[in-house]
């Protein structure tokens, strides 16, 4: 969740232990989230300290887009808590359009890359969550088994708000719930998640080059996946 830039109004940053975890403070006052106006509390001291550093590193203008850990914590409080059911449903809907289910029919080099990267993830998903996904060649949409989507819904709904926020961000960035879950569970790191999600575009760039718009978009995807990985690592303490 992002917010507009604003003038810096504080001098000191820090954290404080509270009953539910650790809160981020500015001039000894608890930071509030933009929408729910909830106290910015996270369950992990390392995460709270890293978020406080994000606030401390701001200049005269505070740029929320340069505070990815704080943004994920805001999403946890402002979306993953009050809109939990809708967030879970939206993530499960990725199953019908998940990029790892739509293999390119050609050229052979791309087909082989996708199979090498995607098939192990599909096998992992089926074994880990009892959620086998149907694959196809091309872009015509396919419906996934209801049992698979229910298994994914159960798995996603078990997550706490912090991890749900990280999963939501990484899934949107990758265009894949499978990749998002693999990052969440440590099956992929951020760099591997990027390579997996961007395999087709990387191949196209190798053939014909990359324009500035594509480069900017890919940089954004990489930043989002890196932030989600770091958030989850710090959350684990």
Order of helices and strands: EEEEEHEHHEHEHHHHHH
Largest sheet: 4 strands, antiparallel
The count of β-strands is 8
Strand content: 5-15%
Write a concise synopsis of the structure shown.
With 237 residues, the chain is α+β, with helices and mostly antiparallel strands.
Describe this structure in words.
The structure is a single chain. With 237 residues, this protein is an alpha+beta fold. Helices cover 56% and strands 10% of the residues. The strands form three sheets. Strands 2, 3, 4 and 5 form a four-stranded antiparallel beta sheet that branches. Helix 3 (84-93) crosses helix 5, helix 3 (84-93) packs parallel to helix 6 (161-174) and helix 7 (177-184) packs antiparallel against helix 8 (190-197). 36% of the residues are buried.
């Amino acid at each position: 969740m992002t917010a507009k830039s604003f003038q810096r109004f504080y001098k000191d940053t820090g954290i404080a232990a509270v009953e539910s975890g650790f809160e981020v403070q500015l001039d000894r006052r608890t930071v509030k989230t933009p929408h729910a106006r909830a106290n910015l509390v996270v369950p992990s001291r390392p995460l709270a300290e890293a978020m406080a550093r994000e606030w401390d590193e701001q200049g005269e203008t505070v740029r929320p887009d340069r505070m990815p850990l704080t943004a994920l914590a805001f999403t946890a409080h402002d979306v993953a808590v009050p809109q939990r059911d809708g967030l879970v449903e939206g993530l499960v809907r990725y199953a019908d359009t998940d990029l790892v289910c739509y293999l390119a029919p050609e050229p052979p080099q791309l087909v082989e890359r996708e199979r090498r990267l995607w098939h192990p993830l599909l096998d992992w998903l089926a074994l880990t969550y009892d959620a086998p996904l149907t694959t196809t060649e091309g872009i015509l949409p396919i419906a996934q088994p209801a049992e698979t989507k229910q298994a994914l819904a159960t798995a996603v709904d078990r997550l706490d708000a912090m991890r749900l926020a990280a999963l939501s961000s990484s899934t949107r960035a990758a265009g894949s719930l499978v990749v998002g879950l693999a990052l969440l569970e440590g099956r992929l790191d951020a760099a591997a998640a990027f390579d997996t999600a961007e395999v087709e575009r990387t191949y196209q760039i190798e053939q014909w080059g990359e324009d500035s718009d594509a480069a900017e978009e890919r940089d954004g995807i990489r930043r989002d996946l890196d932030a989600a990985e770091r958030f989850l690592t710090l959350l684990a303490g």
